[in-house]
Amino acid sequence: MAQTDRDVFDKVGQYNLDELAIISYRFAEDSLPRRIDIKGILYNFEIAEDILSNNVVGSVIVYDMQDIRTIMPMVGLERLSLKFNSPGLNGYDYSEDTGVPLQIYKIDKVRKDPQNEKAQLYQIFFCSPEMYRNVTTKISRAYAGPVENAVISIVRDVLKSKKKIYYEPTSTNAKYVIPNLRPYDAINFLATQAKSKKFRLNAGYKFFETSEAFHFRSIDSMMGAGGQFAEVTPKWKYQSMITAVTEDAKQPELKDIERRLSSVIKYEFDKPVDTLDNITGGFYANKVTVHDAFNKTIKTHNYNYSEVGPNQVHTEINTDRFSTVGLLYPEDGSGKGVKFADTGKSLTEMYDAKTMVVTETSKVHNDYEFTPTSLLLPLSTHQSQAMRNMNLSLLVYGNTLVNAGDIITFTSPVQRPGEVENNPYTSGRYVVMAIKHMVNVESQRHEMVLKCFKDSVRNAYPKEEDALNSVGTDTRAGLSNIYNLQSDEVLADF
């Protein structure tokens, strides 16, 4: 049997698992080992990263016929040495050699194999070691200067992380007092205060971990990647086929590995339209009332999607291939949002649908200035809700080149009689919010689920040239006093 080149894809779903071992919290003894290789008893494993989560997490399921928990007693302080990648690509290196093995924190679902009394299945959960340090540490100190400096200091000095840190420079120069917070709580707070140097209408940052590094960056930088704002091109292009691609496909073109890696096994859109949720979530409009205790002022700031949206960064804005961007809301002929029902207003003018009240104290530290809440909060409220729209889930073949925070393209075909064309609304650029790698040892197959979102469409939705006619102008129409009770009527006693 010919040996497979570990750096070359021979088939889709292929993977390299170079390291998978449990490392004891103890030093080696004569009777008990310090390290046990579990590749031979692996049933399947998962590892995931998410821009809304600070750390990489995952689990392994083992088929254990020797009860290794008696050979190496596990108490939740063990580490997992893992090295995993797609052939020829970078991947996850949490091996003991790198000095950053993963931390085991839970064992769950231990059950016997009904067909083999000596065998048992159980699940081992793991996370990045920084997650452990986060729950055992508190910070009480002040930071001054650019926000990224404070974040880097916390990661290096408090979390003791040796991993790379990729950050987007900020324009925020402030002084912050961290009042006895966990490191990630402190970082996540600092992320809400960060203002990008590059993106004017920036709405705060995210701090998350991928297989590459820790990232401290704005959603705007993720959406703008690959267009006029950065040189980075989409990490991968996915194509939903009208006819499913099978392992024994006869078409020679479908046997090309790159083409097959670009094919989508299954996809679905989660809640492509939910106007009510968008209204209450502040997507179209929101209002922030700011109380400044230092200056003794109260100010109100409104966010209007139809006014501000065209000036924000979007997934489809001014890319090399597309010169126009369509907002996730149709406009009327005047450039404003379509009027909603018989209100005479568009949804982008209904500011009371989402109201927020905050207290802000400015200029309490000489030479430092807080990023105004009135600037960030309306934008971040809109952006958080935008990430709940046009959510796409892709089941695809494993590819460790793609990470959370990357841009991918997805082409969704529409089949018409005699032709196949791309859907102008669902096709296009997406930000990868989360990735879950799934490896099944029995089938020797690596697949992954991508959770993605887009905040704009390639082609603008059709405009409504004329406002909707008012309905129900008679305020008494449809009203009936079906009970017909008069003031002098008395209800019977019971």
Can you put this structure into words, describing what you see?
The protein is of the alpha+beta class. Among the domains are: 16-132, Beta Barrel (Thrombin, subunit H); 137-224, Phage tail protein beta-alpha-beta fold; 275-386, no CATH class. It is 14% helix and 35% strand. Strand 12 (205-209) and strand 13 (214-218) form a beta hairpin. Helix 3 runs antiparallel to helix 4 (183-193).
User: What average pLDDT do the residues reach?
Assistant: 81
Level of helix content?
10-25%
| Corresponding CATH architecture of the domain at 16-132 | Beta Barrel
What Rg, in angstroms, do the CA atoms define?
27 Å
Oligomeric state of this protein: single chain
Shape: globular
List the helices and strands and how they pair.
Blueprint: E1 16-23, E2 35-37, E3 42-50, E4 57-64, H1 68-71, E5 79-85, E6 92-94, E7 102-113, E8 116-127, H2 129-135, E9 139-146, H3 147-158, E10 165-167, E11 173-181, H4 183-193, E12 205-209, E13 214-218, H5 219-224, E14 236-239, H6 257-261, E15 264-270, H7 275-281, E16 285-292, E17 297-304, H8 305-308, E18 326-327, E19 355-360, H9 373-386, E20 391-397, E21 407-411, E22 413-416, E23 419-422, E24 428-440, E25 445-453, E26 456-457
Parallel strand pairs: 10-13, 14-21, 16-19
Antiparallel strand pairs: 1-2, 1-5, 3-4, 3-24, 4-8, 5-6, 5-7, 7-8, 9-11, 12-13, 15-20, 16-17, 18-26, 20-25, 21-24, 22-23, 24-25
Helix pairs in contact: 3-4
